[in-house]
User: What shape does this take?
Amino acid sequence: MIIVNVKEGESLDRALKRFKKKFEKTGVLRELRARQAYEKKSVTRRTQIKKAIYKQSLNQDTI
Assistant: This one.
């Protein structure tokens, strides 16, 4: 359960923004989307490797 303490005089928009940030950090939505369609472990591993290669190539270009 996510608890957001609203300080006195704080606007509702600001408190909502903090709630959204906390909610996103928990990863609930990401997990929900992942559970909607089953993906084999080999496929997830392959996509992770592809992402790592891509990120590594980006870092080498900047150096």
